[in-house]
Design a protein that fits this description.
It contains 5 helices and 46 strands. It is mainly β. It is about 5% helix and about 65% strand. It has 2 domains: about 100 residues, Immunoglobulins (Immunoglobulin-like); about 650 residues, Maltoporin, Chain A. It is globular and about 95 Å long. The strands form 6 sheets. The chain has a 22-stranded antiparallel β-barrel. A 6-stranded mixed β-sheet has the order 8-9-14-15-12-13. A 4-stranded antiparallel β-sheet has the order 3-2-5-6, with no helix packed on it.
C-alpha cells in the first residue's frame, strides 16, 4: 500500500517543468565614506554543508561568486586597517548584489580570529543540525554532550532516543557504529566534547543512509584538519558529585595549501555512582525489595589523528584514526529483603559484585573525494575498519544473613572480540536544469565472538563450573546495499527528492556452549524514500518552508541483543540475549515547517511491525527468578508533534525552547498473553545564552520528561537543569567555565512495570548533580605564506 502510493506521487511529480536554481552574487566592499576597498578578503561558508568559498575584491571593491545554491551563508570580510565584518546572509533568487561598509580600526598584525555566530539549531532538508559550541564548555565527554542536546533523550542505560519507540542509530563521521549500548557508551565517554564539530539529528533519513534507522540517526561529526594555518588548544577540568571526574587534553592542527593534519589526545578519570531501589513481585508468593549502590571508576584515554591531502583542486585524500581505551572497575553493594504477601520477613541477603572491565577500540577510516566539475558534482569513496576488544572479570557473593547464614559465591571471565569492515562509494552528479542525481553502493561486514567461563560455589562446597553462564557464541553479519535517488525543483517552487534503497541481509549466529542455538537470516528488502519541500510564504525577511518526508526502515537486532550468554545481575534477576529475534520494519511519515532554516513545527507517524523491545519475564519453572531479555512483541503506532521557538543569535541574548509529544500504542503478545498498551508522554527542552560582556557568557540548558517511557517501563516525571558561566582572558585565548549540572536534583527517575507475571516499581539516581570547572587555552602559531593575497598576514583560528 505504501509503495503504490509512493509510486503514484513520483509519477505525478515527474511531469513538471524544468527550472534552474543556481545563483550568482556580487559582494561589494566599501569604507565608511562609500569608497571601494580593493584587495579585501572574503570568506563564505554554507551553513548546511562543509562547502566554503573565498574571493578577493577587484579595483571596484567587488567580488563575484557563482554557482551558489540558495540558502544561508556565514560571511567574513577582512581588510588591513579595518574591523573584520562577520554576518550571516541568505542567498535567494532575484537578489544578486550585497553591499557592506567596513569600519576603520588600528592596524594589528597579531592573531586574527575568524568566528561567525551560528544558530544553535538549523534545518537542512531532512537533517536538524546542532551547533555544539555553546554546549561544549559545560560537559566533560561526548555522552554528556548528547544529554545536553535539545530534543535528544539519553536513558539511564545509555540508549539515545529521538522518539520513544526505538533508539536512534549512532553514526560518527557518517559511519554507523553498529555496536551495543555498552560498547558505544564506553567510546562516547572517552571522546572529549571539544572534538565534536556538530551533531546532526536525522529523524527520517534519505535513501543514501542505511535502512537500519527506524529510530532515526544521530550523526556525530568530529573536527578534522582545516587549511587555516597552525593552531591548537590545551584543556583540563574536573567536576564533583558523589564521585569525581577529572580530565585533560591537547589538540593540534597544521594546515597548509595542499595538506593538513591534526592530533588530539585526551585522558579522563570517570567516577560514577548509581543508586537503585526496586520492589518486584511475580507469581511467586513473596515480594522482593532491593536496594543497591554501584560505584564505577574508569580510566579512559582517547587518541585521534588524521591527514588530508589535496594535490589539486579536484582530488582530496584523507585518513582518520581513533584509539579508545578504558579500564573500568565497578562495585555493587546491595541488600535484598524477601517478604511474604503478609509483610512477614522471609529472608535477608547481602550482595557484593565486583566487575573489572578493560576495553580497547581501534578505528581507521580512509577516504578519497573527486570533484567532477564546478557545479558540485563529486565522487566519494570510503573504507573503514574497526576492532573492538572487551573483557570482563566478575566476582560475586550472596550472603544470606536471615533466617540462617548461607554463602553463595561465583567468579568468571568473558572475552569479546569484534571486527567490522565498511566500504561505501557515493556519486553525486549535477545535471542540467538543476537535476541532482545521487547513487552509491555499500557493504558492511562484522564478525563477533564471545567466550565466557564461570564458576560458583555454595558455602564450603567445592567450586564447580556454572553451566548456565559458561558460553561460546559467534556471530557473522554482512549487509550489502545500493541506492538511487534524484532531486529536482518543480512548479510552484516545489523541490522533489525521491529514491529507493535495496539491502541484502545475511546474519548467522552459532552458540556451541552450553547448547546449539544456531540461526540464519538471509533476505532482500526494498526501502523507498520521498521528500517534498516548498516555500509557504515570506514575512519581511523571514521565509517559511514546508517539508513532507516518507521513509521505510529496518531495525536489526545487535549482537548483544542476540547473544544467549546469561549475565548475573543478582540472585533474583539475570540478563540474556535472544538469538531468535527477527528484524522490525517501520514506515515513517513526517511533515515539518522551518523559518529561515530553523526548525519550527513537525507532525508525524511511525508504524512499526515486529517491534523489538526489552522485556522482563519469569524463568520457566522458577517464578521467583526474573529474566531481562529482548523479544518481538507485535505492532506499534507512534504519533508525535514537535514545536521549537527561539530568538536567533544576533544580539547578546538568544534562546531555544521546544516540546515534543508522543502517543504510543502497542498491540501484540507479552509473555504469551495479549498486549494492549497505550501511553502519551511530553518532552520539554530549552537552551539560553546571555553574553554579559564581550568576554563573559552565561548559559542555561535543561529538559523535563513528563510521563516518559522506556520500553514498557512507565517513567515518572523527571528532568535536569544545567548552568554554565564562561569568562575569556588574554585576548580571548584563555577560557574558564564554571558549570553546574542537575542543580535542582531532579534526575531521580521513578518507574513502574505491570506486564505479564511481573509487577515492579522503584527509582534510580545516577549521580547527575555535579559542579565543576573547565579550562581551555587556544594557541596559534605564526606562519608566513606569500602566496595568499591577505595583506601579508595569515588567519589563525582557535580550536573552539
Amino acid at each position: 500500500m505504501y509503495f503504490s502510493k509512493f509510486l503514484n506521487i513520483i509519477i505525478f511529480l515527474a511531469i513538471s517543468h524544468f527550472v534552474s536554481n543556481a545563483q550568482s552574487i556580487v559582494i561589494e566592499v566599501l569604507d565608511e565614506k562609500n569608497q571601494a576597498l580593493p584587495g579585501a578578503t572574503i570568506m563564505m561558508n554554507e551553513t548546511t554543508s562543509d562547502k566554503s568559498f573565498a574571493g578577493v575584491t577587484d579595483q571596484e571593491g567587488k567580488a563575484v561568486f557563482g554557482d551558489l545554491t540558495s540558502g544561508m551563508y556565514m560571511l567574513s570580510i577582512q581588510f588591513l586597517g579595518y574591523e573584520t565584518l562577520e554576518k550571516t546572509i541568505r542567498v535567494v533568487k532575484n537578489k544578486e548584489n550585497f553591499k557592506f561598509n567596513l569600519k576603520e580600526t588600528s592596524v594589528n598584525l597579531g592573531e586574527i580570529t575568524v568566528k561567525a555566530r551560528r544558530p544553535l539549531m538549523r534545518q537542512d532538508g531532512e537533517k536538524t543540525i546542532v551547533d555544539v559550541e555553546p554546549l561544549v564548555s559545560t560537559t566533560s565527554n561526548t555522552l554528556e554532550l548528547l544529554e545536553a542536546t535539545p530534543g535528544l533523550y539519553v536513558d539511564p542505560d545509555g540508549g539515545i532516543f529521538l522518539g520513544t519507540t526505538a533508539p536512534a542509530a549512532v553514526y560518527i563521521n557518517g559511519r554507523e557504529q553498529k555496536m551495543g549500548n555498552q560498547d558505544l557508551n564506553t567510546i562516547l565517554r572517552s571522546l572529549p566534547p571539544g572534538s565534536v564539530e556538530r551533531i546532526e539529528l536525522i529523524r527520517t533519513p534519505s535513501a543514501k543512509y542505511e535502512a537500519s534507522s527506524s529510530g532515526g540517526i544521530v550523526n556525530i561529526v568530529l573536527k578534522k584538519g582545516v587549511k587555516i594555518g597552525r593552531f591548537g588548544s590545551v584543556n583540563t577540568g574536573m567536576n564533583q558529585g558523589k564521585q569525581g571526574n577529572y580530565f585533560a587534553g591537547l589538540s593540534f592542527n597544521n594546515g597548509g595549501e595542499f595538506s593538513s593534519y591534526y592530533v588530539n589526545a585526551n585522558y579522563t578519570f570517570n567516577g560514577a555512582f548509581d543508586e537503585l531501589n526496586v520492589t518486584r513481585q511475580t507469581s511467586a508468593p513473596f515480594v522482593v525489595n532491593q536496594q543497591s549502590e554501584i560505584i564505577r571508576k574508569s580510566n579512559q584515554g582517547n587518541l585521534s589523528y588524521g591527514i588530508n591531502f589535496a594535490p589539486n583542486e579536484k582530488i582530496t585524500w584523507s585518513y582518520d584514526g581513533r584509539l579508545n581505551g578504558s579500564l573500568t572497575n565497578s562495585n555493587t553493594q546491595g541488600l535484598s529483603l524477601i517478604n511474604a504477601l503478609t509483610s512477614e520477613k522471609l529472608s535477608e541477603i547481602d550482595n557484593d559484585i565486583d566487575n573489572h572491565t578493560p576495553f580497547l577500540s581501534s578505528q581507521n577510516d580512509f577516504g578519497i573525494k573527486y570533484k567532477i566539475d564546478s557545479l558540485g558534482s563529486e565522487w566519494e569513496t570510503k573504507l573503514s575498519y574497526n576492532f573492538t576488544n572487551n573483557q570482563m572479570e566478575q566476582e560475586y557473593l550472596a550472603n544470606v544473613i536471615f533466617p540462617q547464614i548461607i554463602n553463595t559465591s561465583g567468579d568468571g571471565k568473558s572475552y569479546q572480540n569484534r571486527h567490522f569492515v565498511d566500504f561505501s562509494s557515493d556519486l553525486l552528479y549535477k545535471l542540467p536544469y538543476d537535476i541532482k542525481l545521487e547513487t552509491g553502493i555499500k557493504s558492511a561486514f562484522q564478525q563477533y565472538s564471545t567466550d565466557a567461563s564461570y564458576f560458583y560455589k555454595q558455602g564450603d562446597a567445592e567450586r564447580i563450573q556454572d553451566s548456565r553462564r559458561t558460553n561460546a557464541f559467534t556471530y557473522t553479519e554482512n549487509i550489502n546495499g545500493a541506492y538511487l535517488q534524484a532531486s529536482k525543483p518543480l512548479f510552484w517552487d516545489i523541490l522533489l527528492q525521491t529514491g529507493v534503497r535495496g539491502e541484502h541481509t545475511y546474519m548467522k549466529g552459532a552458540q556451541t556452549i552450553p547448547s546449539d542455538t544456531s540461526f540464519v537470516v538471509n533476505r532482500l528488502d526494498w526501502f523507498p524514500f520521498l521528500y517534498l519541500s516548498r516555500k509557504i510564504f515570506k514575512i519581511s525577511d523571514f521565509e517559511l518552508r514546508g517539508f513532507l518526508i516518507y521513509r521505510k526502515t529496518i531495525t536489526r537486532p545487535t549482537y548483544q541483543n542476540l547473544n544467549p550468554h546469561l549475565q548475573y545481575v543478582d540472585q533474583f534477576m539475570s540478563e540474556v540475549g535472544n538469538p531468535y529475534l527477527v528484524p522490525q520494519f517501520t514506515h515513517n511519515w513526517e511533515a515539518n515547517v522551518s523559518v529561515d532554516d530553523m526548525p519550527l513545527f513537525a507532525v508525524g507517524r511511525k508504524s512499526t511491525e515486529g517491534i523489538i523491545s526489552q522485556v522482563m519475564y519469569t524463568v520457566p519453572g522458577n517464578s521467583g527468578q526474573a529474566l531481562r531479555t529482548y523479544d518481538n512483541i507485535g505492532k506499534s503506532q507512534e504519533d508525535y508533534f514537535r514545536l521549537i521557538v527561539g530568538l536567533p543569535p544576533v544580539n547578546k541574548y538568544f534562546f531555544v525552547v521546544g516540546t515534543q509529544y508522543n502517543h504510543l500504542s502497542y498491540t501484540g503478545t507479552y509473555d504469551g498473553e495479549p498486549l494492549d498498551f497505550k501511553r502519551g508522554s511530553w518532552l520539554f527542552f530549552t537552551f539560553h545564552s546571555l553574553r554579559i560582556t564581550d568576554n563573559t557568557r552565561l548559559t542555561m540548558n535543561g529538559f523535563l520528561y513528563y510521563k516518559g517511557q522506556m520500553s514498557f517501563l512507565e517513567l515518572e516525571t523527571f528532568g535536569m537543569l544545567n548552568f554554565g558561566l564562561t569568562q575569556q582572558f588574554m585576548d580571548k585565548k584563555l577560557q574558564v567555565t564554571l558549570n553546574a549540572r542537575d542543580v535542582l536534583h531532579t534526575m531521580v527517575t521513578g518507574f513502574q512495570l505491570n506486564q505479564g507475571d511481573i509487577i515492579m516499581n522503584g527509582d534510580r539516581y545516577a549521580d547527575n548533580q555535579r559542579f565543576g570547572i573547565n579550562i581551555r587555552y587556544n594557541f596559534g602559531l605564526e606562519k608566513n605564506d606569500k602566496k595568499k593575497p591577505n595583506q601579508g598576514f595569515e588567519f589563525e583560528m582557535p580550536q573552539e
